[in-house]
Structures are given as C-alpha cells and as structure tokens.
Amino acid sequence: MRRREFIALLGSGVAAWPLAVRAQQPAMPVIGYLSARSPDDTAHLVAAFRRGLGEQGFVEGQNVTIEYQWALGQYDRLAAMAAEFVRRPVTVLTTTGGEPSALAAKAATSTIPIVFAIGGDPVKRGLAASYNRPGGNATGISLLTNPVEPKRLGLLHELVPQATTVGFLLNPTLPQSGSQISDVQEAARTLNLQVHILRASTDREIESAFESVAPQNIQALAVAADGFFDTRREKLVALAAGHAVPTMYHFREFAVAGGLVSYGIDASDAYRLVGVYTGRVLKGDKPADLPVVQSIKFQLVINLKTAKTLGLAIPDRLLALADEVIE
User: Which end of the chain is more exposed for a tag (fewer CB within 10 A), N or C?
Assistant: First the structure.
C-alpha cells in the first residue's frame, strides 16, 4: 500500500471513530409528563418535581429529557395525549393533576412505567392492587385531597358558625365526584348544615354557580379538590370576593391568591416525591414493587386580609392551628 493511501485510510478511520462511539452511547431517557392542569398554575410544582428528580441524580437537559402535555382542565383531551406518549414511546409516564391523568395513562399502556399523583384512593380507582404492593405498571403519590372534603367543610363551619346553608362546588366530570358529594352530604348532616351542590365544568358554569349563591341563601362555600378548578384559581378567588361569600379551598395557592382559607396537603412536597419516584423508576425500580405513598403533610392557611374584607372574626382556635396566616 502506498504511503499516501495509508494516511488517507488512517484519517478516515479517525474521523469515523467519534461517530461510532456516539452511536454506541445509550439514548437519553424520556419522561412523558402528562398533566390535567396548566403550565401557568403549576410552575412551582414542576420545579418541585425537578428537585425530586435531582435527588435521584437526574437533571433535565443533561441526562434526562422531559416532554410535557397539558390538558388545561379539559379531561377529554387526556386519552389522546397519553396515547401520543405511548406511540413515541417514552421511558416513563408521570401523571399529575389528579385521577383523570393517571386513568388515561393506565388505559393507554400496561407496559410503560407510570408514576402518578392523585387526590384519592389508587386501589379504588384500579390503579394499584394495594398500597404496599401496587403489582402493575403504576405507582405514585396519593395527595389525599378528596378524602378530606368533610374536614374542610368542618373547618369552614367553625370559621363561619352562623352559616346554616353552605354550598359545595364540584366538577361533575371528575371520576370521583360522586364520592365527593356523598362524603360532603354526610358531613353536612353531622354538622346540622343544609348543603347545596353546585356543579361546574366550564367557565360559564363557574360563573352561574356563583350567581346562584345569593338566591339560594348560601352563606359559605367549599370548592372541591379538582384539577380543573386549579387551572381557574384566579377566577374562583375573584368571584368569591365579588359575591362576598366566605370560601374554603384545598391548596395553599388559593389563599395566597386572596382566598379566605385553604386546608390540604403541601403540594410542593408531594410533587417532589413524584420526582423522586420517577427518578427511582428511571434507575430500574419497578412500579409493582414501589409502595404508594400517602401525603401526610397538611397545611391550614388563613388570609386575614380577606377575612377583614368579609367582616369575619377568625376564632382564636383556628388562628392557633393555622400553619400560615396571611396579613
């Protein structure tokens, strides 16, 4: 072989070597992040999710890719979004914003690992065989937002003891809305309260619900835990102020936005745990073997400024119990 040909051959081999090495490197894992909510109302929660991933050694854009799909409170969009993630496919499906996202993912795949954040019981919803041994391709965090609806009603009654008629605003398209109604009605009977069920799954229906507050003599209102309502946080708080009705919510963000009071789990901590679990699945843990975690970190938040606007005196016991008082 001539010297010139040998050098050309050697040069071509050196040039091809990095390409071959790159071809042998494993592709970056992809998380399909499916949410019933919106990017605007969950920016802080997505940040908490990323922190949880970071605890497991995963950083978006460095060693993991995250692709996002947002239903914006429109649950009928979730099935197509989940199916799209399955077609790509993604390495793991992370679902947030409640049961609708998790159920859509579960219906779309029985093989891709799913890590969910839901408000109720994953066993009753068919997402897991049990808390300790989920047994299938899904596990995650139960935020316990729905089971504490009666507790929220009791706190609202304590906050507005003169109210004998209360409203309960829920989204009828939420899978567990039936159990929300029965739980609240039972709690209302125990508290000797009359409860009016108000239903809304669109912006106009939310407005109509508040317009019915005065005609029905509703003296206080509880808003059900629901991803659709989370995407309409500012609207709900503004309508409650405009109709001067004391209102209870399920997440701290509502009270921070000007709502009177909220009682529920620390959502940021729960989303961090979702990130931790997603990272563990990426490392090879199987959802079937990862126990479902129940959030136990609850927060009672009272907005004193809103209470003063409504002419309400907050009982000392509630002020003492509050984890945060906004002045």
Answer: N
H/E/C letters for each residue in the chain? CCHHHHHHHHHHHHHHHHHHHHHHCCCCCEEEEEECCCCCCCHHHHHHHHHHHHHCCCCECCCEEEEEEECCCCHHHHHHHHHHHHHCCCCEEEEECCHHHHHHHHHHCCCCCEEEEECCCCCCCCCCCCCCCCCCCEEEEECCCCCCHHHHHHHHHHHCCCCCEEEEEECCCCCCHHHHHHHHHHHHHHCCCEEEEEECCCHHHHHHHHHCCCCCCCCEEEECCCHHHHHCHHHHHHHHHHCCCCEEECCHHHHHCCCCEEEEECHHHHHHHHHHHHHHHHCCCCHHHCCCEECCCEEEEEEHHHHHHHCCCCCHHHHHHCCEEEC
Task: Summarize pLDDT for 48-103 with one digit per residue, the tens.
Answer: 999 999 999 999 999 999 999 999 999 999 999 999 999 999 999 999 999 999 99
- For domain 149-265+299-326, give the CATH number: 3.40.50.2300
Q: Where in the chain is the domain with CATH 3.40.50.2300?
A: 30-144+266-297, 149-265+299-326
* Candidates 3.90.550.10, 3.40.50.2300, 1.10.10.60, 3.50.50.60; CATH matching 30-144+266-297: 3.40.50.2300
